[in-house]
Design goal:
Elements lengths: L1 E3 L2 H13 L4 E6 L5 H13 L2 E6 L19 H10 L4 E3 L3 H4 L18 H5 L1 H18 L3 E5 L3 H13 L5 E5 L19 H22 L5 H14 L4 E8 L12 E10 L2 E10 L3
Parallel strand pairs: 1-4, 2-3, 2-5, 3-4, 5-6
Antiparallel strand pairs: 7-8, 8-9
Length: 283
């Protein structure tokens, strides 16, 4: 596996692969790899000739009071894990390589960024996500890019970015990977002390309670949310948001018909965690 730091070197490596008619898969990450990241790499490895993983803690998607400075970083560990999954290139640039002096462009996607994490973390968050993803897609020009369903709103933002800008890339969303007790894997889970770690399992249990209510015939959106909220209340968790929204454009759902996304965010101990579940009923 090659570790590449510059855009110019990465472009040369990808150009050579494309000249040989080799397919290219990209897995954008901020590092601190866990099994969720590795599952994306395996999916990319299974379907592409050249696999590129970017490792870049993107400063523009963090707010002034968020965890940019303490976000977990261990490049040597991440590199070893990526190499173990058969990754060909680890692109690990410095911030100045991505945002050089004079950088003055920001991509803003309206509508789907105004709710959930966009409302909770602020407009800067998805502006930063959209801008860095657009840059990575432009630099690598992959055939396919892989994202985790845990960041469901981010996946929708990236799909809208690709659609609106007519980018020639397929976006693949891979399933959430969970711990044996149901907690969604996240780089921020390392912030949890033992008590908070146990408390955090309530997020998935809340989503399961909502899914069970749907299976039992509940279709009222508020009632479905309430089934989940009761579990969080019992665990002493006050969510930043717990909302049932349409799965394609994040509109509020008053009555479940078809597919919807139940999304939750909450501070548990020292960590801000997110999770979600797709709920489906026959039309």
């Amino acid at each position: 596996m090659r570790i590449i730091r510059t855009i110019a070197e990465l472009r040369e490596a990808v150009k050579a692969a494309k000249q040989d008619r080799r397919s290219v898969g990209l897995v954008p990450t901020m590092g601190a790899f866990h099994e969720g990241h590795l599952s994306l790499m395996r999916e990319a490895r299974a379907h592409n000739d050249l696999v590129v993983v970017s490792l870049f803690v993107n400063p523009t998607q963090f707010g002034p009071n968020e965890d940019l400075s303490r976000y977990p970083r261990d490049e040597a560990r991440d590199a070893a894990l990526a190499e173990g999954e058969g990754v060909d290139i680890l692109f690990a640039p410095e911030p100045a390589e991505i945002y050089p002096d004079g950088f003055a462009t920001t991509i803003h996607i309206s509508g789907i960024t105004d709710v959930l994490d966009g409302a909770s973390r602020g407009a800067h968050h998805f502006d930063g996500v959209a801008t860095v993803v657009a840059k990575l897609l432009g630099i690598v020009a992959p055939d396919v890019a892989y994202f985790g369903q845990k960041d469901a709103q981010q996946v929708l933002v990236v799909r809208r970015l690709v659609r609106d800008l007519n980018l020639d890339v397929q976006i693949v969303a891979c399933p959430i990977v969970r711990e044996p007790d149901g907690l969604a894997m996240s780089s921020r889970n390392v912030y949890l002390d033992p008590a908070a770690r146990q408390q955090a399992t309530a997020l998935n249990r809340a989503l399961e309670a909502a899914a069970e209510a749907v299976e039992q015939g509940e279709r009222d959106g508020a009632a479905i949310e309430d089934a989940a909220r009761r579990i969080l209340d019992d665990a002493g968790i006050v969510p930043e948001y717990l909302e049932l929204r349409t799965a394609d454009d994040l509109q509020p759902v008053t009555r479940l018909d078809g597919e919807a996304l139940l999304a939750v965010a909450a501070h548990v101990g020292a960590a801000r965690l997110i999770d979600n579940r797709l709920l489906r009923v026959s039309a």
